[in-house]
Amino acid sequence: MPEALKCPSCSASLVYPIGGGATMRCPYCGSTVVLSGNPQANFGVASIPEALRPMVEKAIEMARGSGRLGTPGKIEAMKYYRTLTGAGLADAKKAVESLAAGGTADFSGIGPGFSPGVDAAKLASTGAKFGCGLAMTIILVVGFIVAKVVLSIHHQLAAQNQSWAPKIVTVPMPVMTVPQAPAAPTFAHQVMEFGSEGIGVGRFKDSRSIAIDGQGHIYVGEYSDGRVQVFDSDGKFLAEWSIGKGKYLSNLAASRDGTVYAVVSGHIIRYTGATGMPLGEVEYRTEDKDEEYTDATVGPNGNIYTIAGSSDIVTLSPDGKIQTVIKAGEKVGEDLSFSRIAVAGTGEMYTLNQQGGVFKFASDGRYVNRFGSGVEAGALPTPGHLLAPQNLAIDGEGRIYVSGVEPAIQVFSADGSYLDSIGGQEVVFGLAINDHDEIFACFRNQHSVRKFVLDKH
């Protein structure tokens, strides 16, 4: 009657094959099992890896064919062990006896050139010399080299309390990159910043005015302490001068030749920009004793444009003589108060009203239109509507830039259409544009001046 046994690899229940045999294949895991209880199974090897099975089975058949399969010759086995490992006689005897008893032996002395397949073939060719000892030795050497590896793996698995399971290989899924549309270009981006908080060279406390002359010199004025600092086009400090302590500087303007016009306490005073040397005050109208100048800008022709009283646009020659006066309030038909003025290359004039937005006038003084009306009380600011506007500037393409609060700078076309914004949700007071359409702005709360260049036109 068949005898039951267990597969040493997967622990499946097996039965001895009818008719005997030295080995059998486990129908569950495919391992070759050397059958205990048969003479062929007294080699102390439980199972052999797939790649070595043909060699082992061939050796067994060789021994069976000689009719001398049994306990190997002890002397031959000791000699072979010493040949493989270089061990002494005592160690060889101990190892062979251990192998014969089903134990293990030290094969660490086997050099890197040892190959079970090649050496087995070589020894097989001398089978007549070693007889059944050859078959036994081949099986012992190959079996225990493999058993050493298998036992090491089994020990690791036992330590981790793991049972046999099919090997699972995780193949990472390829990362799919979805092409992204390029980000829409901004209107302009910041390329430079200079200044910090303080009263030293290149520092600001309350910078609200900025102007640029024809050589690219940058003039930055403090509102309350009368200080004006001069920088080159790269923001390097050049000089400093003062309009006088206790005087309030409303705005600065600069001509191409380096003359600077400072709006100080309702008057416009001319200075040499490089040194701050006073050049005199522009002509002042006397028909209204309460009249004051609230702003000044220099047009492309060198003339000075200013706001007198509340809404009159006054044009002065470069040396400060009054040429024309436009009653802008009468042109619009409203009682208005303008705080800023800017002039385009074609002579159009743009004035700023805190509540009404920007008013456009033709070069001859005709009223054209208005845009950028103020934000109603309690409402949130929206693009194209101005919240606390502070200053005006015009670039070489005729676009109008309005500084203020949230956003810092808004940009409009010449006809008043909203285009974009610059500078984020911050506060900008002074605003100036040079011949290259580079934008300079006084970020008063950050105590710095920032420069922007256009990204699109």
Give, in spatial order, the strands making up the sheet with the most strands.
Answer: 6-29-28-27
Helix content: 10-25%
The CATH superfamily of the largest domain turns out to be TolB, C-terminal domain
Q: How much strand content do the residues show?
A: 25-35%
Poorly predicted runs are 36-47, 66-72, 111-135, 161-171
Largest sheet: 4 strands, antiparallel
Task: Supply the number of helical segments.
Answer: 7
Radius of gyration: 50 Å
The CATH architecture name of the largest domain reads 6 Propeller
The CATH C-level class name of the largest domain: Mainly Beta
Shape: elongated
Q: Report the count of strand segments.
A: 29
Question: How many domains comprise the coordinates?
Answer: 2
Oligomerization: single chain
CATH topology of the largest domain: Neuraminidase
Average pLDDT metric:
77
Which secondary-structure class do the elements indicate? alpha+beta
Report how far the terminal alpha carbons are from each other. 98 Å
